[in-house]
Amino acid sequence: MAAQRAEIAPSRGRLRIPRVACVRGDMEAFSTRRWWLDATEIRTQRLVLRAISPADAGALGHAMWAHRDHLSPWVDVPGIPLSVRSWRERVRRMTVAFVRGAQLLYTVHGAPTSEGLLGCSGLTPSGATCELSYWLVPASTGRGYAREAAAALARLACRRAGARAARIRCRADNPRSAAVARALGAQLTSERGGVQEWTLPLERLCAGY
């Protein structure tokens, strides 16, 4: 299958930066030092990835609770229904983590309309080796969406942060997640305590981007 070029939307899609995230200096200076704030929307051939924001609280809370039986073995899903206010607080923390660059979480939508939440994909920049994560609602599995979203974030880390490899961690009893890692070209490098670690060299994946 031919490689799909991911397009990063221009900076008009930049997140509104919460004041709590501004440690020092004015807000514009803060944002220009952090490349991820200019990558708040990424488009691939079939998907639109959008940086998590407080506006996603309702859709994210509904998707995670409605599909808790599918997600809870692999994803941290609350054990009881949460109020809208509680979900807003959770998503606010995720948004602050994005702005600070601690964890870049994106909601995944179908292109071109970007309506409906298919799942989430995450990127944790950490120097030469970044970390990828992903989950999808049941109706979106088996279509290559997780691979496509993760590949777009891996290329982002390679191009913007100089990452040379990506790490994917998944439970050993989660064959779907392992299949995504394998489809990306990752190799199983360790397995401890029921957790597999896959390593993906980015040079080949990012060639031509």
% residues in beta strands: 15-25%
Can you tell me the CATH superfamily?
Answer: Gcn5-related N-acetyltransferase (GNAT)
Order of helices and strands: EHEEHHHEEEHEHEEH
The whole-angstrom Rg is 17 Å
Number of separate structural domains:
1
Strand order of the largest sheet: 1-2-3-4-5-6-7-9-8
Q: N-to-C terminal Cα separation, in Å?
A: 16 Å
Strand-pairing-aware structural class: alpha+beta
Low-confidence sequence ranges? 10-14, 17-32
Shape: globular
CATH fold descriptor? Aminopeptidase
Q: Give the number of DSSP strands.
A: 9
The helicity comes to 25-40%
- Describe the biggest sheet? 9 strands, mixed
**Mean pLDDT across every amino acid position:** 85
User: How does CATH name the architecture?
Assistant: 3-Layer(aba) Sandwich
Q: In DSSP terms, counting alpha (H) and pi (I) runs of 4 or more, how many helices?
A: 7
List the helices and strands and how they pair.
Layout: E1 7-8, H1 27-32, E2 41-43, E3 47-51, H2 57-66, H3 68-71, H4 84-100, E4 104-110, E5 119-124, E6 129-136, H5 145-161, E7 165-171, H6 175-184, E8 187-192, E9 195-201, H7 202-205
Parallel strand pairs: 6-7
Antiparallel strand pairs: 1-2, 2-3, 3-4, 4-5, 5-6, 7-9, 8-9
Description:
The chain has 7 helices and 9 strands, in the order βαββαααβββαβαββα. The chain has 209 residues and is of the alpha+beta class. The protein has one domain (7-205): Gcn5-related N-acetyltransferase (GNAT) (Aminopeptidase), CATH 3.40.630. It has a 9-stranded mixed sheet, sandwiched between helices. It is globular.
